[in-house]
Amino acid sequence: MPSDNKNIARREFLTSIGRLAGSAAMLRTMAAMGIGFSAASCGSSSAAPGAAVLPPPPPRMQSPRPGDWPSNVGAGKSVVILGAGIAGMTSALEMNRLGYACTILEATAVAGGRNRTIRAGDSAVETDSTQDCTFDVDADLYFNPGPARISHHHEFLLGYCRQFGVALETFVNDNHAALLHATTAFGGQPQVKRRVVADTRGNIARLLAKAVNQNALDQDLSAADKTNILAMLQEFGDLNGAFEYTGTERAGFPGQENSGSRQRGELVSPLQLQELIGDTFWQLRQDYAQGLDQQPTMLQPVGGMDRIARAFESQVATDIVYEAVVSEIRKIANGVRIVYQDRFGTPVSLDADYCVCTIPATVLRSIANDFSSMHQSAIAGFNYAAAGKIGFQSRRFWEQDHNIYGGISWTTQDITQIWYPNHGFGRNSGILVGAYMFGGSAGSTFAAQSPQQRINASVTQGGRLHAEYAAEVARGISVAWLKVPFQLGAWGTSSPGILLSPDDNIFFAGEHLSLLQGWQEGAILSAYHAIDGIVARDTA
Predict the structure, then answer these.
(1) How far is residue 62 CA from its own chain's centroid?
(2) φ/ψ of residue 187, rounded to 5
(3) Which of 20, 180, 353, 534 is most buried, judged by most C-beta within 10 A?
(4) With contact defined as beta carbons under 8 Å apart, do 298 and 154 qualify?
(5) Containing domain of residue 105, as a range?
């Protein structure tokens, strides 16, 4: 049996592969070495100093599945829910099933919150502008400015889709035919992702094989280990018999992105390792789809993300009061009082036993309230991402000229990403997401620009990835979530803290108060958390 020192050395070796080539390569190395998968293999408290050890996950919220609460527990009780987003509608749906009488106050004329889909004739309203969508009228021509993809493990959201009959289709999250572009590398020329991935793997495999063959790892590996690892590295990097990397057809062939399968000539020359490791951009954009929430293939509703919002809305439509702008949130004996302005500007007062408040903190902090000082402080300091997107109608030049079907191209420019539509393949026109920035200075710059300035900047930057861009994209429409009324931010980025606790009979919910900030599944989990708290009160 190997000694403890031998085990530690092996873990260090595996960790180095994980850092360089990703977890998949590490697992393949383990298989080649005959090492079984275990928690210790992937990093634990017993790992050697300097080994990569993932931090423990935050505590899991108690989020019961629908139906786990006592039946009819809410009979005779009332709940006012602030906001008809996914969290608010989930709260109403499940609490109605428990016998609670629910009223949802929604500030806008439509339910869904940030779950929105823009089509021909719609408008994008911001605090200082209004844009009209001029896409052609076509079921395939739509733009999701908010959530646009669903992870396979978002079980509750997917469960509701099944329950409501919302059809789903594949969302291509990682397409190796798409582009990676850094303005400071390779002369500013975009690189096809398959080439970057193939050459990174080839170079790493070559270096590791060289180290093994030079006996640099003899203290770490047995003779059998070395044989197995060399075989694995040869396959992993497509090395030749001398364990050198001279290029691979995995990287494609010269001009293949334009000529399709006609071109089968010489291999493209490998990209130099020094350029591939010179900027973290190349590693991060190769590995992002390894994340649990960012699988290579994900899901989207057929016809637009708001198919989910409309399905929820159909379940609770009679509970929703639209264009009801909340002006006061007050505590009263054994309950709450909400004052709002109806669509005619008339003040209305509504009393209830409980309140579930899903209003974003950026908006909530300006509403008169009786919150505790701790809750007020948390709301005042809560931060949101300055994310934004822009959509263009265009000829499908990415398919017709470059053989890119779905997926995402990345760039170090402010636009950050270009998304190619994952539906309507083979048609003439499609909606290209010409920019998606998650926040930071790029998101703030985007929000500060006028709609036309966003279009101009996005066209210029997109043209550095696709030469025909300016001649093809048109009819742009953008959404900067920092400027969207009743949202004022894309998703929460602060720790939920005290807001996970009720303030007397006021409970808080929303994606910002979940383990999955920025995801609809997080909104649902937060609703369950609020329901759990209310049910606990009524069963105590």
Answers:
(1) 23
(2) 65, 25
(3) 534
(4) no
(5) 79-113+307-382+492-539
Q: Judge if 158 and 228 occupy the same domain.
A: no
C-alpha torsion angle, residues 12, 18, 24, 28 (rounded to 10): -30
Q: What is the structure's pLDDT at 65?
A: 57
Q: Are residues 409 and 468 in the same domain?
A: yes
354, 497: one domain:
yes
Q: Taking Cα atoms as reference points, which of 193, 328, 226, 235 lies closest to residue 24?
A: 235
Nearest to 418 by CA among 457, 458, 447, 475: 458
CATH number at residue 515: 3.50.50.60
| 389 and 377 within one domain | no
My answer on whether 96 and 34 are in the same domain is: no
Six-digit token string for 496: 């939920």
Tokens coding 501: 């606790």
Residue 533's alpha-carbon distances to 95, 423, 501, in angstroms, are: 12, 41, 9
Are 47 and 11 contacting, i.e. CB atoms less than 8 angstroms apart? Answer: yes
Q: Tell me the Ramachandran region of residue 320: left when phi exceeds 0, alpha when psi lies from -120 to 50, beta otherwise.
A: beta
In a domain, 66, yes or no: no
Mean pLDDT by groups of 10 residues along the chain of 540 residues: 44 46 42 38 32 35 60 96 98 97 98 98 98 98 98 96 97 97 94 95 96 93 94 96 94 71 77 89 90 94 98 98 98 97 97 98 98 98 98 98 97 98 97 95 97 98 98 97 98 97 98 97 97 96
Task: Return the closest-CA partner of residue 502 out of 336, 263, 269.
Answer: 336
Question: Which helix H or strand E contains 331, and what residues bound it?
Answer: strand 325-332
Letter for the amino acid at 243? F
Q: Are 226 and 238 spatial neighbours (Cβ–Cβ below 8 Å)? A: no
Tell me if 65 is assigned to some domain. no
- Amino acid letter for position 170: T
CATH assignment at residue 246: 1.20.1440.240
- Other CB atoms within 10 A of residue 134 CB: 12
Q: Is 72 part of a structural domain of the chain?
A: no
Burial of 503 (0-12, 13-18, 19+ CB in 10 A): buried
Print the SS3 string covering 17-43. Answer: HHHHHCHHHHHHHHHHHCCCCCCHHHC
Residue with tokens 């979530």: 481
| 399 half-sphere exposure, CB direction, 13 A CA radius | 20
Number of folded domains that form the chain: 3
Whether 299 and 411 map to the same domain: the answer is yes
Q: Same domain, yes or no, for 195 and 129?
A: no
Of 463, 483, 503, which marks where a domain is finished?
483
Q: What is the domain-level CATH number for residue 437?
A: 3.90.660.10
Angstrom distance (rounded) from CA 358 to CA 360? 6
372 in a structural domain:
yes
Q: Which residue matches tokens 């998949």?
A: 24
Longest Cα–Cα distance of the chain, Å, equals 83
| Last-in-domain residue among 483, 501, 526 | 483
Q: State phi, psi for 159 to the nearest 5 degrees.
A: -65, -40
What does the alpha-carbon distance between residue 168 and residue 304 come to, in Å, rounded to a whole number? Answer: 10
Q: Note the pLDDT of residue 49.
A: 30
Residues 299 and 420 in one domain: yes
pTM equals 0.86
